[in-house]
């Protein structure tokens, strides 16, 4: 493989996982640079997973100061005001993450995801955004797609007992072992904007209800100028009205976005820690797959709802 | 976020976690974040460097400390108000009895071995406390719920015994690398550096038994007047040369097999090699056992590389030299340990030379160590996912929401689009000897078998009891415990050596024995049936327990087997082996079931039951202008809501 061998220290620390994905994959991981924006519970879980896995570097963005809400599902922030006073969420998470694995460089950048230029973004291999508005997601995703090199783009969000992951690996080639042979596989991903613009009418059958419910809420938050996750029970009538309108224009039977589900998501926008662990775990695995080139990456949405317990992959791209 | 009703059961719950390893660290964190207030955690292990890549509550400075205690302290740093009680102890200790269990609302297992899992299952049944059980291997994992009377218990489906190999495959006809590893580790390593008195099948059986055994007796002794170099070469030539020649002389064996090639040291290594480049000195400076290494002496660095036959041979001789010069006092009482660098080097080299002889591909030290140490693959992400699923299931159990209990599989490749697949739990197995009263029956030769055979092969090995008590009617035949009188102990010891039909209260065909474990509060009846003959090949124990099946052994033309994980002399997998299954014996010993396409977890099926994969059809998307309402079979099903 390209480059140096793993050090004795790395071989010892990563022994159990090298037995899962091999030494080549471990070397690729140790050279990967990852940017994450929005440090809520699911992202904290994700960061823990990839720092333990031994990536090269992790850069955190979250300018918020610590609030009760920021503490709720995030185990990276000590609940002691004398520690967190005056520090941003990203700075506090950084201190904890550094401690998990001294071999990974963890740092903080101030700023908003939408303000990052292409010069900056191209220094990364993977970009993960969370708690971002629809416009921010689209804009970061579009910038990634314009870069001279392929940068993997992910969004992740959890509300109530549900979670969503979106993946854009652009044109992704990877080797896959089939019995004795290794075959070259290729996947072509749409951008976030293209994926959500696919008319609902041409979707594959039985797409997760969560996909639709989250699109409605996303549109509601955008129209009302809300921050992501900033909804409460008083918004329910407005969201349900919007749901009806969208369903009519998309020719989708309204019953396929149950009001009870919409109600859960609107009235309980805070995260549920077990779901953060699950979503952060799946996202960690996906990023490890994309960086190491080992294993089939998911395309292009993933959903989990603790109520039915299913973790489902949905492929929503114009070709299908 | 959790609902108000969920929050109130969470706050009021008292939870017992068993295991603070890969799953345990994740679980303790997720429980604390989810609002659990009273958590008790038991783990007997201490922290090792190879834990740090996934057991994120631990740091390098914690190596050697109690997992349960360090995990507690780490979680208290971000959730100081939670009450966490840690126990650095074995869950099988008597202090953790049924009364202890009764104080908890639910027990959550994140264990690494079958034996402890069975034990906790029994305690939970006896205390009537629900159990959420889990396991992971690599990207695979599963979570199951066991509630007495409502769902099956952990032992309702028999667990396959640890993988064993027929002795003759190991001694004469290896066909896989693992056979060479077992030979190198359990036979050759033990013969050279372990207990000399132990029964050992190292020497190949020839058609003429007298010739090999006589010759073999002194061959493994270091003679007073020979150099260790000479001794090493003599052992090399005996096991890789002479023994192969003897095996070749038995022509029947090779009719349908590739013949092995004898290998002699003179063909591989120059006769008396020039003194090593003085590198041996590197080892002289230290008394630290972990730094004594044949690889270091020979300047071989990369554990991922596959060594040549010559390198393997040099490592083989060098390792013997180092054992006899630098670790002389260990020789004679060593047992293979995957963390003993020199032992791993020796076993790798010996297995590779044997593999070469039999035309089997050689492996790197890294891979050999994994096979020899039964090291299970483990990553942080799967453990995190499984811990999240455990908490979700635990909350349902606390709410007594039996209709929604699920067992969930975490898959590597999606099945029906799912990476996390919930399945409805099974009902209790009515003939399960653990959670039902169904008697077992045992065919045994009551005139030949001793009580000891019954205790070792059935009561301990098959029924998994630790403190058994065996009764025939009112007569006590045998008992284990700390508080027994001397004369009772003498009495039981005498009974052990008696054949069943000659016991003070004779056990004959038609006898019903009652076997109990007081700690597990498990008792079962065994109907005895006398039988004269047993097939040595198919029934190597000389007794057959039915009413409960264990998976059959790999068939071969001999009647003894060797395990890879257990030492050859002890048949009991009693001591929990930390790394034998890291966090799991799920794939190795998990229930084997058909689970639609998800067979990558379940392997071959030995259960006729097929779980219902939950697939609520209201997911079905029907378009307004779509005349076709989809699959009629789907529409037929009633919506549950
Ligand atoms: Zn049972």
TrEMBL record, chain A:
<dbReference type="InterPro" id="IPR035985">
    <property type="entry name" value="Ubiquitin-activating_enz"/>
</dbReference>
<dbReference type="GO" id="GO:0005737">
    <property type="term" value="C:cytoplasm"/>
</dbReference>
<feature type="domain" description="THIF-type NAD/FAD binding fold">
    <location>
        <begin position="14"/>
        <end position="309"/>
    </location>
</feature>
<keyword id="KW-0833">Ubl conjugation pathway</keyword>
<dbReference type="InterPro" id="IPR000594">
    <property type="entry name" value="ThiF_NAD_FAD-bd"/>
</dbReference>
<dbReference type="GO" id="GO:0031510">
    <property type="term" value="C:SUMO activating enzyme complex"/>
</dbReference>
<dbReference type="Pfam" id="PF00899">
    <property type="entry name" value="ThiF"/>
</dbReference>
<comment type="subunit">
    <text>Heterodimer of SAE1A or SAE1B and SAE2. The complex binds SUMO proteins via SAE2.</text>
</comment>
<dbReference type="GO" id="GO:0016925">
    <property type="term" value="P:protein sumoylation"/>
</dbReference>
<keyword id="KW-0007">Acetylation</keyword>
<keyword id="KW-0539">Nucleus</keyword>
<comment type="pathway">
    <text>Protein modification; protein sumoylation.</text>
</comment>
<keyword id="KW-0436">Ligase</keyword>
<dbReference type="InterPro" id="IPR045886">
    <property type="entry name" value="ThiF/MoeB/HesA"/>
</dbReference>
<protein>
    <recommendedName>
        <fullName>Ubiquitin-like 1-activating enzyme E1A</fullName>
    </recommendedName>
</protein>
<dbReference type="GO" id="GO:0019948">
    <property type="term" value="F:SUMO activating enzyme activity"/>
</dbReference>
<comment type="similarity">
    <text>Belongs to the ubiquitin-activating E1 family.</text>
</comment>
UniProtKB/TrEMBL annotation, chain B:
<keyword id="KW-0547">Nucleotide-binding</keyword>
<dbReference type="GO" id="GO:0046872">
    <property type="term" value="F:metal ion binding"/>
</dbReference>
<dbReference type="InterPro" id="IPR019572">
    <property type="entry name" value="UBA_E1_SCCH"/>
</dbReference>
<dbReference type="GO" id="GO:0016925">
    <property type="term" value="P:protein sumoylation"/>
</dbReference>
<feature type="active site" description="Glycyl thioester intermediate">
    <location>
        <position position="168"/>
    </location>
</feature>
<feature type="binding site">
    <location>
        <position position="43"/>
    </location>
    <ligand>
        <name>ATP</name>
    </ligand>
</feature>
<comment type="subunit">
    <text>Heterodimer.</text>
</comment>
<dbReference type="GO" id="GO:0031510">
    <property type="term" value="C:SUMO activating enzyme complex"/>
</dbReference>
<feature type="domain" description="Ubiquitin/SUMO-activating enzyme ubiquitin-like">
    <location>
        <begin position="442"/>
        <end position="534"/>
    </location>
</feature>
<dbReference type="GO" id="GO:0016740">
    <property type="term" value="F:transferase activity"/>
</dbReference>
<feature type="region of interest" description="Disordered">
    <location>
        <begin position="559"/>
        <end position="641"/>
    </location>
</feature>
<feature type="binding site">
    <location>
        <position position="67"/>
    </location>
    <ligand>
        <name>ATP</name>
    </ligand>
</feature>
<dbReference type="GO" id="GO:0005737">
    <property type="term" value="C:cytoplasm"/>
</dbReference>
<dbReference type="InterPro" id="IPR045886">
    <property type="entry name" value="ThiF/MoeB/HesA"/>
</dbReference>
<feature type="binding site">
    <location>
        <begin position="112"/>
        <end position="117"/>
    </location>
    <ligand>
        <name>ATP</name>
    </ligand>
</feature>
<dbReference type="Pfam" id="PF00899">
    <property type="entry name" value="ThiF"/>
</dbReference>
<dbReference type="GO" id="GO:0005524">
    <property type="term" value="F:ATP binding"/>
</dbReference>
<keyword id="KW-0862">Zinc</keyword>
<dbReference type="InterPro" id="IPR023318">
    <property type="entry name" value="Ub_act_enz_dom_a_sf"/>
</dbReference>
<keyword id="KW-0539">Nucleus</keyword>
<keyword id="KW-0067">ATP-binding</keyword>
<protein>
    <recommendedName>
        <fullName>SUMO-activating enzyme subunit</fullName>
    </recommendedName>
</protein>
């Amino acid at each position: 493989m390209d480059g140096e061998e793993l050090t004795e220290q790395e071989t010892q620390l990563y022994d159990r996982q090298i037995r899962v994905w091999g030494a080549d994959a471990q070397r690729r991981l140790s050279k990967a640079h990852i940017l994450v924006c929005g440090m809520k519970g699911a992202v904290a879980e994700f960061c823990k997973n990839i720092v333990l896995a031994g990536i090269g570097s992790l850069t955190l963005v979250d300018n918020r100061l610590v609030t009760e809400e920021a503490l709720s599902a995030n185990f990276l922030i000590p609940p002691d005001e004398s520690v967190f006073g005056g520090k941003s969420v990203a700075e506090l998470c950084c201190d904890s993450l550094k401690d998990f694995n001294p071999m990974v460089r963890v740092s903080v950048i101030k700023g908003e995801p939408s303000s990052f230029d292409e010069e900056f973004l191209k220094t990364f291999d993977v970009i993960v955004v969370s708690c971002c508005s629809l416009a921010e997601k689209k804009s970061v995703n579009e910038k990634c797609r314009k870069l001279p090199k392929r940068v993997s783009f992910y969004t992740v969000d959890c509300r109530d007992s549900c979670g969503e992951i979106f993946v854009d690996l652009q044109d992704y080639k990877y080797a896959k072992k089939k019995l004795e042979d290794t075959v070259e596989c290729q996947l072509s991903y749409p951008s976030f904007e293209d994926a959500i613009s696919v008319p609902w009418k041409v979707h594959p059958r039985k797409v997760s209800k969560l996909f639709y419910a989250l699109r409605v809420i996303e549109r509601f938050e955008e129209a009302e100028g809300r921050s992501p996750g900033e909804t409460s029970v008083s918004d329910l009538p407005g969201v349900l009205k919007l749901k009806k309108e969208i369903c009519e224009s998309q020719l989708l039977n309204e019953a396929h976005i149950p009001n009870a589900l919409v109600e859960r998501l609107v009235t309980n926008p805070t995260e549920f820690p077990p779901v953060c662990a699950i979503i952060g775990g799946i996202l960690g695995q996906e990023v490890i797959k994309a960086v190491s080139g080992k294993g089939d990456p998911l395309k292009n949405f993933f959903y989990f709802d603790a109520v039915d317990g299913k973790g489902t992959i949905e492929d929503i791209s114009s070709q299908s | 976020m959790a609902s108000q009703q969920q929050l109130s059961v969470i706050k009021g719950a008292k939870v017992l976690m068993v295991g603070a390893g890969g799953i345990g660290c994740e679980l303790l964190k997720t429980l604390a974040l989810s609002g659990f207030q009273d958590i008790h955690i038991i783990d007997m292990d201490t922290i090792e460097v190879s834990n740090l890549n996934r057991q994120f509550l631990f740091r390098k400075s914690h190596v050697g400390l109690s997992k349960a205690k360090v995990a507690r302290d780490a979680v208290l740093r971000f959730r100081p108000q939670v009450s966490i009680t840690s126990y650095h102890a074995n869950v099988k200790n008597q202090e953790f009895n049924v009364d202890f269990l009764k104080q908890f609302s639910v027990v959550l297992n994140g264990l690494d071995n079958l034996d402890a899992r069975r034990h906790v299952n029994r305690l939970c049944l006896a205390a009537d406390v629900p159990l959420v059980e889990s396991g992971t291997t690599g990207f695979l994992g599963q979570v199951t719920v066991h509630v007495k009377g409502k769902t099956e218990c952990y032992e309702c489906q028999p667990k396959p015994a640890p993988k064993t190999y027929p002795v003759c495959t190991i001694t004469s006809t290896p066909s896989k690398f693992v056979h060479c590893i077992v030979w190198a580790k359990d036979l050759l390593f033990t013969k050279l550096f372990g207990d000399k008195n132990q029964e050992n099948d190292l020497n190949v059986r020839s058609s003429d038994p007298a010739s090999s055994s006589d010759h073999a007796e002194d061959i493994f002794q270091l003679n007073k007047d020979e150099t260790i170099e000479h001794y090493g070469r003599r052992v090399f030539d005996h096991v890789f040369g002479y023994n192969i020649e003897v095996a070749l002389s038995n022509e029947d064996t090779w009719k349908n097999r590739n013949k092995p090639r004898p290998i002699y040291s003179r063909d591989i290594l120059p006769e008396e090699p020039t003194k090593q480049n003085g590198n041996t000195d590197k080892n002289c400076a230290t008394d630290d056992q972990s730094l004594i290494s044949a690889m270091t002496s020979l300047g071989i660095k990369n554990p991922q590389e596959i060594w040549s036959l010559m390198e393997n041979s040099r490592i083989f001789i060098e390792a013997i030299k180092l054992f006899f010069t630098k670790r002389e006092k260990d020789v004679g009482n060593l047992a293979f340990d995957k963390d003993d660098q020199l032992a791993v080097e020796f076993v790798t080299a010996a297995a590779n030379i044997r593999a070469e002889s039999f035309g089997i591909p050689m492996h790197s030290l890294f891979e050999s160590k994994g096979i020899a140490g039964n090291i299970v693959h483990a990553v942080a992400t799967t453990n995190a996912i499984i811990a999240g699923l455990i908490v979700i299931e635990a909350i349902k159990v606390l709410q007594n929401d039996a209709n929604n209990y699920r067992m969930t599989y975490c898959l590597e490749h999606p099945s029906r689009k799912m990476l996390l697949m919930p399945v409805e739990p099974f009902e209790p197995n009515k003939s399960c000897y653990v959670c039902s009263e169904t008697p077992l029956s045992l065919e045994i030769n009551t005139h030949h078998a001793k009580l000891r055979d019954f205790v070792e092969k059935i009561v301990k090995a098959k029924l998994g009891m630790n403190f058994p008590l065996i009764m025939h009617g009112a007569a006590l035949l045998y008992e284990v415990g700390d508080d027994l009188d001397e004369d009772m102990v003498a009495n039981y010891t005498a009974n052990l050596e008696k054949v069943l039909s000659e016991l003070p209260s004779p056990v004959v065909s038609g006898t019903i024995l009652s076997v109990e474990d007081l700690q597990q509060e498990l008792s079962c009846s065994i109907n005895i049936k006398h039988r004269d003959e047993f097939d040595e090949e198919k029934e190597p124990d000389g007794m057959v327990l039915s009413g409960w099946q264990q998976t059959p052994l790999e068939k071969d033309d001999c009647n003894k087997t060797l395990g890879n994980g257990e030492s050859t002399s002890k048949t009991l997998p009693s001591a929990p082996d930390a790394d034998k299954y890291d966090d799991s014996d799920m794939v190795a010993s998990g229930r084997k079931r058909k689970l639609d396409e998800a067979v990558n977890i379940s392997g071959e099926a030995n259960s006729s039951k097929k779980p219902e994969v939950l697939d609520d059809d209201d997911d079905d998307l029907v378009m307004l202008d779509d005349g076709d309402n989809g699959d009629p079979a789907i529409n037929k099903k009633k919506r549950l809501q």
